[in-house]
Amino acid sequence: MAALTLCLAGGALADDLQTVSDPDSLGFSARRLARITSWFEAHAKKGDPSGFVVAIARGGKLAYLQPTGFADYDKKIPMRPDSIFRIGSMSKQITSVATMMLVDEGKLELDAPVAQYLPELKDMQVVKTDPATGDAIVDAIPLNLEPAKRAMTIRDLLRNTSGLVYGQPYFADPGFGNTAIHVLYAARAPFRRDKPIAPFVASVGTLPLLHQPGEVWEYSIGFDVLGRVIEVVSGQTFDQFLQSRLFAPLHMVDSGFSVPADKLARLVAVPGAQPPPLSDGDVGKPQTFFSGGGGIVSTVPDFLRFCQMLLNGGELDGARILKPETVRLMTTNSLPPDMHLAGHEAGPAYGTGWGLGFAIRTNPDFSLIPGAVGSFNWQGSWGTFFSVDPVQKLILVMMMQRQQYDDHGFYFNAIRRLPYAALKVPEVPAPRASGPINAAPLIEYVGRYDFGGSASSLDRQPLVADGNSWTGLESVVAEADGLRVIKPVDGGPAARAGVLAGDLITAIGDRPIKGETPEAAFRRISGPVNVTIKLKIIRQKQADPLVVAFAREAVPSHSVQLQVRVADGKLVVEATGRWSILDFDKGQPTPVAVRSNDEFHVESGDHTRIAFVRDVAGKVIGAVLNPGPWEQRGALRQIGQALAE
User: How many CB atoms lie within 10 A of CB 440?
Assistant: First the structure.
């Protein structure tokens, strides 16, 4: 891999995050790391108009930095490592850090009412809830309001529990609210990039809260309100504060709310129709509305430095931004287990909590994101993503630019998984059998083996991985009497059985959900593949409950699978799921040689070992990759047929 050196403007910087180091010295397999380049290049060659920049750092050193495709597809301008992107909601983490800098300095109290700093938000009313269901009554005109039980605090803004929401159609994603309140927010407090933050916040003060402060997590405009809090407390405009207090000390030389004329050639174009004037994407001229929730532009190298500061406990290259204990607080789950969640970005169903501005991985059994428990991450609506794993000291950053929000997850899954799949693990001595090998007929091993949701032995997940996705329930939220279905997977087992969006699951099997923690309910939804699950459902406008039953299924897009077959008298292994794993690539059958009874190995590459597991009757039922402390276990899901020799 050729080393890439960035010549960045500004003061002298350490070289560790500028020049790509030897991958092997950082614990990566160079061959498997190269899969990342191949994966993104393949999608660029298919005509995907989104170019990409991907960076990986480990232990404070740059392991990978690669631009792919075009910064402007129509003009065929190549992507470059320092191309400038609209980072959307990754602005929220920058705003959170800026907020906590003032908390560290004693100028801002975390649990103080927001109205202490912004009097225009004093005595906000809250939409009344239905006593029977606990849901807000949003269909009554005029709205039925009541006083807030307590004032929303700075902490509430940081953790999305303020009661504020995003307006529709500004944030037009089907997983977020689209009630009359959300429409009202868009109408009475619109985002206008030609106006300052102050009148926007004043408009917010005329609106009701949808939830009582502290009672419901809902993604919201709270980070934009924080931008105004920072202005009032610091005496600077928000953009000036970020530039002088955060971007300059961290040498984030290309970050801000707009792109100056001399850098416009590096601004990535949005495929298709370009952003209209006054939109979030109109960053080619100076701004007056400094959106702390989604208005910042940056580069992969800049954001890598921001993440490294957090991984270092608040310091980078001698610049102390936050106290170490403050970073720990921000990156620790702050949501209680019984918190109601309106939306599908956090909660027990996703093994994800929320700290003070960050999504936190809390449970690997349900999380769709690899990494150690305590890893933190987020993404932006324009197609940007980052993740920080404190245990592996690993930072992942990917940026692309596109407007089709539904397509982002496809690419986010790649940057979440491919780097972990490239990590090497400590080798465990495994001597060959000293005596004669009583090799079994190769046909006994033929079949498809499922290894769960992770391609990395450093992120081992149970075979019942990806939580409720085995049932095809893409998004559910906990309510007082059960689990509300937000979205079933089109064509998935639940949808085929008749489950609809809006259904309330009140029982799993013969046991009701009411009274259980959400995590306990989600664990009962998950289960082995091919085992039937029965759900009791209450459907709107139907008096009698329904009972649906269907078998759980593996989800190929999330699982790692190996196909074992016989070819030319040898056992060959090929990755057939979404992801390659260890020495086994997609589309490339790899022969393995006999090592001992029921164990084989790859004679080249990283010498991956595969040992087959038998039941008490002697029948092959699974396989183990690299047996030992870092092994990955897979179950035989489908017995195959040997190919002719």
Answer: 15
Tell me how crowded residue 600 is: count the other CB atoms within 10 A of its CB. Answer: 24
Residues 493 and 580: their CA atoms lie apart, in Å, by: 26
Q: Take residue 379 and report the two structure tokens written for it.
A: 């993404």
Q: Strand, helix or coil at 326?
A: helix
The C-alpha atoms of residue 392 and residue 372 are separated, in whole angstroms, by: 8
Q: What is the predicted pLDDT for the residue at 449?
A: 93
**Enclosing H/E stretch for 107:** none
Q: How far apart are CA 512 and CA 480, in angstroms?
A: 12
Rg over CA atoms, the chain: 26
How far is residue 377's CA from residue 390's CA, in Å, rounded to a whole number? 11
Please state, in angstroms and rounded to a whole number, the distance separating the CA atoms of residues 67 and 53: 4
Residues paired with 635 in a beta bridge: 450, 622
Distance, CA of 56 to CA of 276 (rounded, Å): 33
Question: Hey, what's the torsion of the CAs at 591, 594, 598, 601, to 10 degrees?
Answer: -60
Query: What pLDDT does residue 109 have?
Result: 98
Question: Rounded to whole angstroms, how far apart are CA atoms 288 and 295?
Answer: 11
CB neighbours of residue 563 within 10 Å? 18
**Per-residue model confidence as pLDDT tens digits over 163-205:** 999 987 544 444 455 677 888 898 888 887 778 999 999 999 9
Contact 46, 79 (CB under 8 A): no
Task: Give 146's strand partners.
Answer: 126
Q: Where are the beta strands (DSSP E) in 195-240?
A: 216-217
Q: Which amino acid is at 469?
A: S
Per-residue pLDDT at 46: 81
| Residues whose CB is less than 8 angstroms from the CB of residue 408 and which lie 6 or more positions away in sequence, other chains included | 379, 381, 383, 385, 402
Domains by residue range for the chain, with CATH: 1-81+381-424 (no CATH), 96-234 (3.40.710.10), 442-462+557-639 (2.40.128.50), 467-551 (2.30.42.10)
CA 427/CA 464 separation, integer angstroms: 27
CA distance linking residue 158 with residue 356, whole number of Å: 5
CA atoms within 13 A on the CB side of 191: 23
Within the chain, which residues score under 50 in pLDDT? 1-13, 170-175, 462-469, 641-645
Instruction: For 590-619, give the DSSP string.
Output: EEEEEEETTEEE-SSTT--EEEEEE-TTS-
Q: What does the alpha-carbon distance between residue 424 and residue 262 come to, in Å, rounded to a whole number?
A: 42
- For residue 594, list its beta bridge partners: 600
Instruction: Give the end-to-end CA distance of the chain in Å, rounded to a whole number.
Output: 38
Which CA distances in Å does 145 have to 142, 184, 207, 300, 342? 9, 14, 11, 45, 19
Q: Which two tokens stand for residue 57?
A: 């750092």
Q: How far apart are CA 238 and CA 380, in angstroms?
A: 20
Nearest-10 Cα torsion for 132, 134, 140, 142:
130
pLDDT in tens, 277-302: 555 668 988 889 999 999 999 999 99
Task: Report the C-alpha gap between 551 and 572 in whole angstroms.
Answer: 31
Secondary structure string (H, E, C) spanning 262-318: HHHHHECCCCCCCCCCCCCCCCCCCCCCCCCCCCCEECHHHHHHHHHHHHCCCEECC
Q: Please, which residues have CB within 8 angstroms of residue 616's CB and are 6 or more apart in sequence?
A: none
Say how far apart CA 440 and CA 329 lie, in whole Å: 55
In this structure, are residues 90 and 386 in contact, taking their beta carbons and an 8 Å threshold?
yes
Strand partners, 304: none
Q: CA–CA distance from 34 to each of 12, 565, 635 (Å)?
A: 30, 26, 28
192 vs 167: CA distance, rounded Å? 13
